[in-house]
Amino acid sequence: MRPIKLTMQAFGPYAAREEIDFRQLENRTMFVISGNTGAGKTTIFDGISYAIYGKSSGEERAGNELRSQFADESILTEVSLEFSLKGRSYEIYRAPQQDKKKERGEGYTTVTAKAELYELKADGEKELIAANVRDVDEKVKEIIQIDANQFRQILMIPQGEFRKLLVSDSKEKEKVLQRLFHTQFYKLIEEKLKKEADQLAERVRGSRQERERLLNSIEPVTEKMQHLLQQEPRNETAVFSQLDEEIRVLRDHLREVQKEINEQQTARDQLNQAIHEAKRLIEQLKHKEHLEETKKELEAQKPLIERKKEDIEWAQRAWKLEQQEQVCWKLKKELDRERERAVQANAAFTASQEALKKAVSEWEEERNREAERSEAAEALNALLALKEQVFSLDEEQAALSRLNKEAKEYEERKAQLSSQGKELEERLEKLEEWIESLDGWQKILYEEEKKKQQADLQIRVLDKAARTNQRLEEYQRQRVKVEQQAVEKRQQLAEAEKNAALLEESWQKQQAGILARALTEGEPCAVCGSTEHPHPASIHLDAPEKNEVEAAKQETRRLEAAKQEAERELDALLIHVQSEQEKVEELEREAKEAGMQVHWSRMAEQKAELMAVHQRAEQERNQAEQQLRQKEKWLAERRQLNAKWKEQREQLEEYQKKELAAREAYAGKQSQVKGLLEKIPAPIREKTAFERAVKQAEAKKKELERRLEEAVQRKQAAETKLAGAEAGLKEREWALKQQEERLDAERDRFVQLQTEQGFKNYKHYADSKRSEDEVKQLQADVNQFNERYRSVSDRLHEWTENLEGVQAPDLSDLSAKKEIIEQQLAEKDQKRMRINHLISNYDHIQTQVRAINEKLKDLEQEYGIIGHLYEISHGKNVHKITFERYVLASFLDDILTVANERLVKMTSGRYTLHRKKDRAKGNAQSGLELLIFDQYTGKERHVKTLSGGESFKAALALALGLAEIVQQYAGGISLETMFIDEGFGTLDSESLDQAIESLMEIQGSGRLVGLISHVPELKERIDARLEVVATQSGSYTRFQLT
Questions:
Q1: In 3-state terms, what secondary structure has residue 939?
Q2: CA torsion, ordered 997, 1001, 1002, 1004, to nearest 10 deg
Q3: CA quadruple 584, 590, 593, 599: dihedral sign
Q4: Fewest CB within 10 angstroms: 159, 716, 916, 1042, which?
Q5: Residue 436 pLDDT greater than 90, yes or no
Q6: Which positions are tagged coiled coil (predicted)?
């Protein structure tokens, strides 16, 4: 990295804008920066460091503390740097967060930190490649590839810093070198080993505690087991042996209890059958009683059924009269309509007579208004003669009014623009305040995004933990189930083996009897050879056959295979359980790394809490984005309002000119209007009034003519209407008479039919009418009653015969007996469950303890390795040096190799720097302290014994070596600049020559070297100086080239 131009404004002692153009040095690669103390020499490097990293060269000065106290309040603090790197040129701009005086009104506003990075193209154009602080920091890291600490160590040798590094102890050197070489990774290895060792130790303790817990959970059945469990220390082998004996005793007891349960279950089943038969008989008796009650209810309904039969008969008779009744009703409705039409025809005839009288009267009245119609025509002609003058006056007055209105509008527009201008200024001030109020939202957006990502990670870990925990619980449930099955298989196998052994023994005993059956008197025995057989062995009737023995052995082998299969399945499940438990431990480590702890008992609530955190972060992030979008809108609005304010100023001047021209035109037009006013009567001077008067005259003339014409038409229409109304009245009277005669004839026919069907009167007929659906329903009710009465009577007769002489049984006695047996069974079942639980628990404890012992063996072996590695890396070794410090010592050796090349030349071969490798006394940390080897004495001594000039040489050599090694380890980055701010004044003439010679070697490789110094000899020997001049109003710089 090589600086091209540095520009600082209101920065440190530089009050105004200060530019340092390093291109003025041309081909010179070394220059002196000179000036009085406090003038701002070191600030030049501060400006370079701040421009690139946003930090000064010293740790004690932050970016927002570098503002010049000489600067005017209206000037912002800002720094820009143009530099070249690997054949490409860049420009970087930064401004810290600072308070700025408001442009309008009182007070200050806070301006947020800004940063921009451009790449400078060969054609002079600039390409923006980062536009905010975060993006610029990331891009700088990518381009330069070293951090701020490394940059300062490579490019800047500050006053006294390397003297401190030279004489500091191992602990202080470790802090400096750790920052430069980023060896925190090795520290993390130490911490990782410690963490793993602690975790292994914790797992060993946990396994031992779990084993102890399992043994403590044994519920002793015998006094011997209780005694073994209370012994200290506990004999685990004896406890396990006694457990087998306890299980055997419990299984014998279990078989006795099961036999008692089977006997009582048989008795309970017999009682249940008796109770069932009793309940069935009671239900049959209740059903007979119900049928008797139902028959009584049906007997009571018989009168109602008879009435329904009569209703059906009369309804069928009424159906025969319905058609004639409808004919009569139809004729009655038609007669009513004819009567209404006759009344309407008579009213129309009367109204037509009255209308004719009125029309004749109106016609005679209009015929007598001829004189009035002549006057109206004359008045209209007089008005039309003034039309041209009135229209001319109207146009001139309109022009006069328009000019006056224009002048007023221009005046009002001027006032409006002035008012709007004030509103714009007020709005601009508010926008400035609002924009400033949103400056912190960019940081909030970044923080909330981090929270959201953290919540996402934790939710993923929690989901993974939930799935793992679910699998673990499922395997645990399967393990308990399979353990129970394994216990049952072992019990069945033991019983089968016992049975097979008994059969084998019995079969063996019967072999003598089988041989005896083949003996013949006088023939030798196949066993003893005797020919006499006084007492041959006999065969018992219940002796087993060979195939029975083989079947028992086959069953034993089958049960053995089943037991082994169950045990293999159990072992597989235990492996699964152990695997899932290890996954749980791994998940707890993952959760810790993710900044959380898994609460296994409340994972759902914990996930809900994390989802709430995620949602809040999302909402806060959305709000921050919304606020930043609002800020962009306000910035755009501010630009628009500034442009609008300028435009309004220009419009205001234009309206002032237009108002003056309108006033002058108004005065000329006013004299023309005055002459026309004298010729036209006042009421019709306005065009609208004149036109209104003409329209009124025309309307009056037309109205009189129209009224006469309409009166004639109304008279003729009334005469025609009267003739039509008279003819219609006569027609309606004839039709009414005909309709009355037809209705009388049909009514007589209906009365005759009513008498024939037996109805007493019309009311009797009307009450008997039923619809077809109603008759069907009545008939269905009758049929349903008859069918139900027959069914109930038949079933009651059958049940009476079947239950004759039967009495209801007593259920209470049977239920009491059953309750006693059920209670006894429950007690026995509880006892069986208790024994089964003890057996299962003992088997489980044996399996778990064996698994824990195997696990403990592996854990203790692993802890022995990891724990030993941690102790070595932590400094518990013969050299008392940690792993990280060992690595740092290697880096320091590389630095000293390069530094000694410089130091040997500067001290004429007398001194070289060595790293102290002896162990420190007691518990003191060691490994990074420095010694100086003196060729004159041939001995080493501490660097603190060097004189001031010698210390400067050693510190300068160390700084140059450190800068070169850091640059190498940073990836060979080409940083072609160095600033040295050291005490050259402590050197004699020869030492100064030697120091300058070393620096010349550096700049001979193309590096630009800047020496910050007051030493006159340096100014004389180096032909380029950058002078920093301090004044009462701030400092400025200038190059002096010779």
A1: strand
A2: 120
A3: negative
A4: 1042
A5: no
A6: 190-434, 465-506, 545-658, 687-862
- Residue 532: what pLDDT? 63
Nearest-10 crossing angle of helices 387-437, 603-679? 150
Whether residue 115 contacts residue 136, with contact meaning beta carbons closer than 8 Å, is answered with yes
CA separation for the pair 721, 140 (Å, rounded): 108
C-alpha–C-alpha distance, residues 262 and 438, integer Å: 85
- pLDDT-based confidence at residue 19 (cuts at 50, 70, 90): very high
Instruction: Report CA 37 to chain centroid distance, whole Å.
Output: 59
**831 near 236, Cβ under 8 Å?**
no
Over the chain, what is the mean pLDDT? 79
* 618 DSSP 8-state letter: H
Element of type H or E holding 633: helix 603-679
Give backbone dihedrals phi and psi of 408, rounded to 5 degrees, phi first.
-70, -40
Which residues is 108 bridged to in the sheet? 101
- Worst-scoring range by mean pLDDT, 113-127, 536-550, 573-587, 958-972? 536-550
pLDDT band at 119 (very low <50, low <70, confident <90, very high): very high
Amino acid present at 253: H
Q: How far apart are CA 836 and CA 531, in angstroms?
A: 60
In terms of Cα–Cα distance, which of 132, 135, 138, 140 is closest to 114? Answer: 132
Cβ of 34: how many Cβ atoms within 10 Å?
21
pLDDT band for 92, please (50, 70, 90 cuts).
very high
Q: Which residue has the higher pLDDT, 241 or 901?
A: 901
Element (H, E) at 352: helix 322-367
Alpha-carbon gap, residue 103 to 108, rounded angstroms: 9
User: Which residues are within 8 A (CB) of 987 and not within 5 positions of it... i.e. 6 or more apart?
Assistant: 949, 952, 953, 995
Q: What is the pLDDT of residue 514?
A: 61
Give the per-residue pLDDT at 151.
75
* CA distance linking residue 646 with residue 183, whole number of Å: 60
Structure tokens at 480: 């308990």
Are β-strands 977-980 and 156-157 bridged in parallel, bridged antiparallel, or unpaired? Answer: parallel
What string of H, E and C letters represents the secondary structure of 740-806?
HHHHHHHHHHHHHHHHHCCCCCHHHHHHHCCCHHHHHHHHHHHHHHHHHHHHHHHHHHHHHHHCCCC
Q: Average of pLDDT values for 593-604? A: 73
Rounded CA separation 32/1008 (Å)? 11
The stretches of 874-947 forming alpha helices (DSSP H) are 883-906
- 545 by DSSP, 3-state: which? coil
The one-character DSSP state at 116 is E
Give the DSSP letter of residue 531: S
List own/partner pairs for 785-792 with CB under 8 A and 24 or more apart. Answer: 785/298, 785/301, 785/305, 788/298, 789/295, 789/298, 792/291, 792/294, 792/295, 792/298
Sequence-separated contacts (24+) of 664-668 with Cβ below 8 Å: 665/403, 666/400, 666/403, 666/404, 666/407
Do 843 and 487 form a contact (C-beta atoms < 8 A)? Answer: yes
The whole-number pLDDT of residue 877 equals 67
Distance (Å, rounded) from C-alpha 502 to C-alpha 509?
A: 11
Residue ranges with strand state E in 892-1033 = 911-915, 930-934, 939-942, 977-980, 1008-1012, 1024-1031
Q: Which residue has the tokens 């000037």?
A: 75
Sign of the alpha-carbon torsion through 754, 760, 764, 768: negative
Least confident range from 295-299, 856-860, 968-972: namely 968-972
Structure token pair of residue 996: 């300058």
For the chain, give the percent of residues with pLDDT over 90: 5
- Return the half-sphere exposure (C-beta side, CA atoms, 13 A cut-off) of residue 1029: 9
pLDDT in tens, 249-301: 888 888 888 888 888 888 888 888 888 888 888 888 888 888 888 888 888 88
